[in-house]
Automatic annotation (TrEMBL):
Signal peptide: none
Pfam families in alphabetical order: F-box, LRR_At1g61320_AtMIF1
Segments forming domain F-box: 11-47
Tree of life domain: Eukaryota
Protein name per Swiss-Prot or TrEMBL: F-box domain-containing protein
Organism: Nelumbo nucifera
InterPro entries found in the cross-reference section: F-box-like_dom_sf, F-box_AtFBL13-like, F-box_dom, FBD, FBL13/AtMIF1-like, LRR_At1g61320_AtMIF1, LRR_dom_sf
Length: 510
């Protein structure tokens, strides 16, 4: 009896907490879990209706097997062949959303997250519009609408993505994330307080991006990931507060899905990242406040036009103090020596760069470009080398007449044979090398840096991760792993024998 009384007192302590505290606690739970607290007592019955965060995720109502079945059906065009089990689970979710939105106090909502796998023949499509209108009618400051659920990839060019209802979005909105939908900003009024926009797998008709920027006076961050855009993408924001721009793997709904031309004018931009193909024209203007730039260009051919375009682009990014480049960029900068000299003159504007990250194979197709960048960055303090030993070479242009001849190119002695000076060696303080395997070209670079970096404080070398070749289980793989570790130990011992000009330089291997 005494134990029961103590339990009752414990329950009373929780129940005696102010409603605002209990609501705050419930806000950390997924909505479907918060709703279950209505059965605790009368006091708890309506508390969940006050939580400021609505998190409605179809995945919590469908088992993983059912969702895999759904994604496979979408990929194969057999959506109508879904099982009765999956249909029941999806109906349970739709019914739950209906009830949750019906009973929830719309005035208390500050954040809405709705995630489900949309299909144009979805049985509950008529309900979807009602759900979205409810979200739009709220005073939410953050709105996340994911119509792809957890599907790894859905192409808005091929599949019918969801089109938002023609009505204004909440004026209070500060953060907007849309996944797998068609977005036409002019249909949703102005966004006076919107600061961050993330669009994933979204279809953006001609002019939509520019309309968004024009109607968002407070927009600071814009992310376009795997979006469907015009073949000529213009982002003109001369008066905008835009500080962060990410363009990642976008394609066009015209001309075979290729975006041929990018034009960016954003004077207040501080962070810029581009991932994808760089074709006919890529121009950025007036990036006087740029701090960080990331170029991950992925294509399998090089032309003289690319050489000029990339050089001009790097000049435009010259205000950045932090720069990251893919292997393709180094290969473009590794064109024939007479053009290479012009690059170094043109890239002299990289005098503000103090942090450089490059992805490279450290082979004859990258080394000239890497040397060019180092010569063009006299104030470099931090250098990160991400060695790419696993990807296939871009065979389509390895025999290009303007690329160096690999058969007559000594990668091991390349650095020692350089005649032009590297001013950055007087300021370089930290070097990080990732996926190191101890090849001759890698050892040559380490030896050169240790021997010539006057103020080097730290060199961090991270070995490539062990990947067993043997398919034999048990001792076979164990023995292979031991041999791998022994090879790393031998390489480490050799590295530690390399002479160092800096008396405070330390080498760490892991």
């Amino acid at each position: 009896m005494e134990r029961l009384r103590r339990n009752e007192l414990g329950m009373d302590r929780i129940s005696s907490l102010p409603d605002s505290v209990l609501v705050h606690i419930l806000s950390f739970l997924p909505t479907h879990e918060a709703v279950k607290t209505t059965f605790i007592s009368k006091k708890w019955k309506f508390l969940w209706t006050q939580i400021p965060v609505l998190d409605l995720d179809e995945f919590t109502f469908c088992d993983e097997r059912s969702m895999v079945e759904l994604y496979n059906a979408l990929e194969t065009g057999r959506y109508f062949l879904s099982s009765m089990r999956l249909d029941r689970q999806r109906k349970r979710f739709a019914d739950f959303v209906d009830r949750a939105l019906l009973h929830h106090d719309i005035e208390s909502i500050r954040q809405i997250q709705l995630s489900f796998c949309y299909h144009e023949d979805y049985e509950f499509t008529s309900r979807v519009d009602q759900w979205i209108r409810f979200a739009i009618a709220s005073n939410a400051t953050a709105l996340e609408l994911n119509f792809a659920s957890r599907s790894p990839s859905r192409d808005p060019r091929i599949e019918g993505c969801y089109e938002l209802p023609h009505c204004p979005l909440p004026q209070s909105l500060k953060f907007l994330r849309l996944n797998f939908c068609e977005f036409r900003p002019l249909r949703h009024g102005s966004f006076d307080h919107l600061e961050i926009v993330e669009l994933l797998q979204a279809k953006l008709p001609d002019g939509s991006v520019q309309d968004l920027i024009s109607n968002c006076p407070c927009l600071e961050s814009l992310h376009l990931l795997s979006c469907c855009v015009p073949h000529h993408l213009v982002i003109s924001a001369p008066e905008s507060e835009l500080k962060c721009l990410l363009l990642d793997s976008c394609s066009s709904y015209e001309m075979n899905g290729i975006v041929y031309k990018y034009e960016i004018d954003a004077p207040k931009l501080q962070h810029f990242k581009f991932v994808g193909m760089m074709l006919h024209e890529f121009s950025v203007k007036r990036l006087r406040h740029l701090v960080e730039a990331h170029l991950d260009v992925r294509q399998n051919f090089i032309s003289q036009m690319h050489c000029s375009m990339l050089t001009e682009l790097l000049k435009d990014l010259g205000h950045a103090s932090c720069l990251s480049l893919s292997s393709w960029c180094l290969q473009v900068l590794s064109f024939k020596d007479e053009i290479h000299v012009n690059h170094e003159i043109a890239l002299s504007s990289l005098h503000r760069l103090n942090n450089l990250t490059v992805q490279t194979r450290l082979d004859s197709f990258d080394l000239l470009g890497l040397a060019c960048l180092l010569r063009s960055s006299p104030n470099l303090e931090f250098l990160t080398i991400d060695i790419d030993n696993h990807k296939d070479l871009n065979l389509e242009y390895l025999d290009h007449p303007m690329l160096p001849n690999a058969r007559h190119f000594d990668e091991m002695s390349f650095w020692e044979n350089q005649s032009s000076p590297f001013q950055c060696l007087a300021k370089l303080e930290k070097v990080t090398i990732n996926d190191f395997s101890g090849q001759d070209n890698e050892m040559g670079l380490v030896k050169f840096l240790l021997k010539n970096c006057l103020v080097l404080k730290e060199m961090s070398i991270r070995y490539v991760i062990f990947q067993p070749v043997s398919t034999i289980s048990g001792r076979g793989i164990d023995r292979e792993h031991l041999e791998f570790l022994q090879a790393q130990l031998d390489i480490t011992q050799e590295l530690l024998t390399f002479p160092r000009v800096s008396t405070c330089a330390q080498v760490f291997c892991s």
